[in-house]
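Action item from last week, closing it out:
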Amino acid sequence: MDKIKLEILGLSPSQSQSGSFALVLGEEYGNRRLPIIIGMFEAQAIAIEIEKIVPNRPMTHDLFKQFAEQFRFTVREIVISDLREGIFFAKIVCFDGVRETVIDARPSDAIAIGIRFDVPIYTNESILSEAGITASGSDEEEEQEELVRSTPNRPSSRSFGDQLKNASSEELQKMLEEALGNEEYERAAKIRDEMSKRN
């Protein structure tokens, strides 16, 4: 199975789940995005390492790195390996100089550890096809999305599910382009799911 390299594009508060964050991963040589909802503490652990902030005491993921270094093993890569019933699964691929070991992990923990070891993050085509969102890049669409962003009275998120069910395929496509233009990847994922149900 071919691996597709991902990079961290952003971390933003979740619009639908209080206390959660959307971690957005992007395809290295493509325009697909993979949004993953993670908890507040995991988001903090990722943000601290990205910003190179050194906490007074080691956080859990820092402790994992120190433990690994003391026992002379390293992390080679992180793989977002599976998606089952809307839940992502990940693997931490470790090496002790002799053999490789694969450890099951939540994607948020795996990525928090992976960035501390400065290792690549991968996924596969089936996950990107199922859960990925294609970012649009044309100038005309960007202008339309900018117009939508500046328009007041956007629909309330409480009735968002109903809006999706009642929208036509063309309306869903337009909503998806708007969400992508606004970098609202969680919203875009819900629209994509509704579109997938109809296909």
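Closing note: The chain is about 45% helix and 30% strand.
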